[in-house]
Specification:
Shape of chain A: globular
Order of helices and strands of chain A: HHHHHHHHHHHHHH
Oligomer: heterodimer
Shape of chain B: globular
Order of helices and strands of chain B: HEEHEHHEHEEHEEHHEHEE
Strand content of chain A: under 5%
Distance between the termini of chain A: 16 Å
């Protein structure tokens, strides 16, 4: 089926070439990092994780969102999702690849990467994160490919694949739960030390992920004749608005516990993120933007009429997606490290080279995504024709 | 014929099972550098057993804040950083093994505004060599491990530079080599290795000096403001001091059980 990726119009090849150029730029930036070390980043002794790990944390959520299509389709037999299910699964593949690339980019000694497997350490959550991420990648490649092949041959998917489809449901939950556990079990980091973190991660994932899927489906609709139908996207929009509401609710639970208990080491981080701390506050405008975008996204998508209107659905999804990205892709990690355990404030801003590496990684992920979507939509159109 | 094939299959099956289980058993029994490094537990290693080596059941450090002057602190930091080739990098990507911070920041939970003499006083901070170290728990490669005598050590050659230990340490006691440290070391001491870019490092209670029968370098130059010894030995200096004077530890509420004690 891969041959479908080799035929395409000018726009397709132009887009792929642009991605390749961006990948080359990212590669050059990464070369700088390999030779000079992570000193090219804005990270420091106090803020020892930055943009890379934040992107990984956010993208795990976008990857986990496939489950929001698998559950309705296979547990509730909502057949309409069958049309875009493959897009959700291939999206998961591309996003997990992005996650893995971001983790590798963050390593100080990537040449020793295999030590994680050579010296397996089950007491480290990072070990389990490696297990669940790679497992999820494998499951989604397998399920996506086998069901698509069956679709092309116009036969029912083989029965054995059902096992992996059902397995993908708890597995999707596990990837974001384990990623939350990376943070939620650390003593002395008040912003992360909360049992609600895994739940909040899942809620924001099930908002940002489907929002992203809706947006990419619209893009696919513009460039190909692929159309899953208005209801499908409107129903998916409902998932987005419910999940985002739960996300905001869980965040407010967190705000209550922290501010009503008045424990300084827990309050300091929220203060830093939303009001600034001892005169430092690079993230303050970002966090308020995220709040406003998230809330207005909810307000727009709550109205059923808006979910049926293409433009309103797109605007709502953009607001939710960017809101969730700022919250996890900037605030979650930066805010957790500031102030440091000695109550000192060292702020973090990513450098141009760091953003260059990230751009290259994103381009790689989008290349994988484009090629897989090309194949999937190509097969669908071949069957329809 | 059928019986034969069956028994052959049985034999082959058992053999395959055996081959696949055996290496796993080895891993479960001893995952890496030491025989006690079992896969299911945070790794612990034995300490050197040479004749000259100083031995203890549980090493601990006591810092007497009343005897500790800024001059002594400066000497301690200098000798530590010199002996261990700690580079002086002037940016926020610096490396620190032993340094000072304000008392009220080191002991935020245990200070109040009326401890006027204490709160502004510079206080020595270092790795606490916790009994229950979070950094060892999170390390995905066992590059951070604990010896049976309590010292939390770093294997610079196994560290992949993920910096999870830095996120886990509630005392900010770890540094990362964002860049090659060698250009930032004034005089390299050939007795101790320098590090490479991309690995984490920290104070190791001078494990290399203990192995040769010497006390930690900072304790030696501290003019009696620091003591070092075995918590398991009731007759040791540290036990005597802790029995006689009031002492505090950093963030005791976290349950990490730091083994650096501060006499007040």
């Amino acid at each position: 089926m891969l041959e479908k990726a080799l035929t395409g119009g000018k726009i397709y090849w132009g887009w792929l070439s642009l991605l390749l150029v961006l990948m080359a730029v990212g590669g050059l930036c990464y070369w700088q990092q390999l030779t000079q070390g992570l000193t090219i980043t804005g990270m420091s002794r106090d803020v020892s994780w930055g943009f890379y790990i934040a992107q990984f944390t956010f993208l795990v959520g976008v990857a986990a969102s496939a489950v929001m299509l698998v559950i309705p389709k296979y547990l509730h037999h909502y057949q309409k999702f069958g049309k875009i299910l493959i897009l959700g699964e291939f999206n998961a593949v591309a996003m997990v690849i992005l996650c893995l690339l971001f983790i590798v980019a963050d390593l100080g000694s990537p040449q020793r990467l295999m030590n994680v497997i050579l010296h397996p350490t089950p007491n480290s959550i990072l070990f389990w994160d490696m297990v669940v991420l790679n497992g999820y990648l494998f499951i989604n490649i397998l399920v996506g490919w086998v069901t698509l092949q069956a679709e092309r041959k116009e036969v029912a998917p083989p029965n054995w694949i059902k096992f992996f489809i059902y397995l993908s449901i708890p597995w999707a939950v596990s990837i974001h739960t384990v990623t939350a556990f990376l943070y939620a079990g650390l003593p002395g980091r008040g912003y992360w030390l909360t049992a609600v973190l895994a739940a909040r991660f899942l809620a924001s994932a099930f908002a940002a992920g489907p929002a992203f899927l809706i947006l990419v489906t619209y893009i696919a609709k513009i460039f190909t004749k692929f159309d899953p139908g208005k209801d499908v996207l409107a129903v998916l929009g409902k998932t987005v608005v419910y999940a985002m509401s739960v996300n905001i609710f869980l965040f407010l639970c967190e705000v209550f516990t922290v501010t009503y208990s008045q424990i300084p080491s827990h309050m300091a981080h929220l203060q830093y993120l939303f009001f600034g701390y001892h005169g430092h506050g690079v993230l303050v405008p970002w966090m308020w933007t995220a709040m406003i975008m998230g809330l207005s996204g909810i307000l727009i998508l709550l109205v059923p009429k808006n979910r049926k209107s293409d433009n309103m659905l797109i605007i709502g999804c953009i607001l939710v997606f960017i809101g969730a990205w700022i919250d996890k892709g900037l605030g979650m990690i930066g805010g957790g490290f500031v102030p440091n355990p000695l109550h000192e404030v060292t702020e973090y801003v990513p450098t141009a080279l760091e953003l260059g590496v990230s751009l290259g990684i994103y381009a790689t992920g989008f290349l994988v995504l484009t090629v897989m979507y090309k194949v999937a939509i190509g097969v669908k159109q071949e069957v329809e024709a | 014929m059928n019986t034969n094939r069956r028994s052959l299959l049985k034999f082959a099956g058992l053999a395959v099972l055996g081959w696949s289980v055996k290496p796993a058993l080895t891993v479960f029994a001893a995952g890496g550098a030491g025989p006690r490094e079992a896969i299911l537990f945070a790794s612990r290693h034995g300490a050197p057993t040479g004749e000259k080596a100083l031995k203890a059941g549980r090493w601990a450090m006591v810092i007497d804040t009343s005897k500790m002057t800024p001059e002594i602190q400066k000497k301690c930091i200098e000798v530590c950083h010199k002996t261990h080739n700690v580079p002086s990098i002037p940016t926020k990507q610096e490396i620190k093994w032993l340094w000072t911070a304000q008392f009220s920041d080191v002991f935020a939970e245990q200070s109040h505004p009326y401890l006027e003499k204490l709160t502004k006083r510079p206080t020595l901070t270092l790795c606490n060599h916790c009994d229950n170290p979070p950094c060892v728990r999170v390390c995905p490669t066992k590059a951070t491990f604990q010896r049976e005598d309590g010292i939390v050590m770093m294997d610079f050659h196994r560290c992949i530079g993920c910096r999870y230990c830095m996120a886990a340490c509630p005392y900010g006691s770890r540094s990362f080599n964002f860049q090659d440290p060698r250009p930032f070391i004034e005089n390299i001491d050939m007795e101790f290795p320098t590090r490479t870019k991309g690995v984490v490092e920290k104070c190791e209670f001078c494990a290399e000096r203990l192995a040769e029968g010497h006390l930690p370098a900072c304790v030696e130059v501290s003019e009696g403001a620091m003591a070092f010894g075995d918590l398991d030995d009731p007759g040791s200096d540290v036990r005597k001091l802790l029995g006689a004077r009031y002492s505090i530890r950093r963030k005791p509420e976290l349950g990490t059980e730091p083994c650096v004690y501060y006499l007040i």
